[in-house]
Amino acid sequence: MKKIANFLAPALSLVAIVFSVAAFNKTNAANASAQMVATTDGTTALPAGQPVDLTYAAEKALPAVVYIKNTQNSKTQTVEYSDPFEDFFSDPFGGFFGRGQGQGQKRQRQVQTPKRQSAGSGVIISKDGYIVTNNHVVDGADELLVTLNDNKEFSARIIGADKTTDLALIKIDGKDLPAIVIANSDDVKVGEWVLAVGNPLGLNNTVTAGIISAKARTLGANGVESFIQTDAAINQGNSGGALVNTRGELVGINAMLSSPTGSNIGYGFAIPTSIMNKVVDDLKQYGTVQRAMIGIQGSDVSRYVDAEKEKGNEVDLGTMEGIYVAEVVEDGAAEDAGLKKGDVITHIDGKKVTKFGELSGLIAQKRPGDKVTLTYLRDKKKQNVTLTLKNEQGNTKVVKNADMDVLGADFREVTKAQKEQLEIDYGLEVIKVSGGKMKDAGVPKGFIILRVNDMPMRTFDDLQEVVKEAGSSKDQMLVVRGIYPTGKRGGFVIYLSDEE
């Protein structure tokens, strides 16, 4: 009997614990039901800090997340090649007698590229069929097929895309579609529960849960970065899908993961809706993103101080938070406002900025011509200045033509100093080459374009116009002439089309 009693005691205790847990959960459920609050779309959900039933968020978000299939059709391309063995056997003594054979001469041949397909996710943001996804999900597509959560299929067209933020806006012809509610990503907090919704690894309609691990992350992957970091499982196929809060509201577009294996054993990163909203508005209105620039290069103060300490230098900037200005771009907004190397930016429009990702996120919501007030430290003394943001060309004009994206480069008009140094009257400097036809042709950063197709390049509009004309011509070719920073003259031929 003693052994039996000893056995029953823990068993009875276990039963008591089970009933206690059940009673506790029942009480919490009752309390949670009593504390439901109204959301932005008129429904109810649990307030922050309360026990969370994630099924609510999943039910709200799943219908708005779609599967996107990108098809790139087979194409005929002309490629150059050299075959020294072919040259030798066709004319083994050609090189000896000076006939030019045996030299590995360039030849051309036509190559048929295979048909390619890839897939990702997207989020319906309006009832009439606008969908946000990643640029890399739709890049190069000849056909886009969108499958809804209820398996209905639609062909989609690209309204606009932006490589710098890795966002794209596409459209399907539909009515009364299940659009998601968009929340303000600035309101999310580290530690807050979120769901990642998408189609990873070919598994449609998948939901994973995690928390906000960090905000305003920069990874060096895109030009404009202020990622929301999460430990919710994100894998290939999740790109373009939704990151939602516990109310099922969109707070970010899942874009990438950081993992040594390429699968989820690391962290996922989402583009916040604060950036997404502005990009979507620009793509709808202009067809391309109107990108504002402060005109500085710099880093987090903490990183700058650490780097100086490694060199044996002691630095005291009066703060360990903010953006250290390492360089002020000539003719940029910051130079016009009087900022100098060594200044430390601490606030923008009254909002504290502690790292570069926060600065990027705030400026990404602005357009050229917008005014912002900067608070900064100079020699540890606080100062304020209001500046007018400029575009990448150094002015406040609207960039109207999205066809320039095919070049994969950024430009600006040459400065007065460059004109004097190189003895030129005009030109467009290539300030960035990120891919596209410029990279294919070998045009380097720093090259100054003087003429394209015999037209002088005095302004960015001149380049836009000649690219537009060449794109609609039979040859689809740009003959670029210019000058290197060293003063050496040079030229390139840029083919706008890959097809024969």
Could you tell me the mean pLDDT? 83
Please give the alpha-carbon distance between the first and last residues.
93 Å
The percent range for helix content is 10-25%
Radius of gyration using CA atoms only: 28 Å
Largest β-sheet summary: 7 strands, antiparallel
Spans of at least 5 consecutive residues whose pLDDT stays below 50 are 1-35, 95-103
Percent strand equals 25-35%
Describe the protein.
The protein has 500 residues and is of the alpha+beta class. It is 23% helix and 32% strand. It has eleven helices and 29 strands. The protein has helices spanning 2-34, 54-61, 84-90, 135-138, 273-285, 301-310, 333-337, 356-363, 416-422, 436-441, 460-471, and strands at 37-38, 44-45, 65-72, 76-81, 107-112, 116-124, 130-133, 143-147, 153-155, 157-162, 167-171, 193-198, 206-217, 227-230, 242-244, 250-258, 267-272, 296-300, 323-328, 344-348, 351-352, 371-378, 381-388, 409-413, 428-433, 448-452, 455-456, 477-483, 489-495. The strands form six sheets. It has a seven-stranded antiparallel sheet with strand order 9-8-3-6-7-11-10. The protein has a six-stranded antiparallel barrel with strand order 12-13-14-17-16-15. It is globular and about 65 Å long.
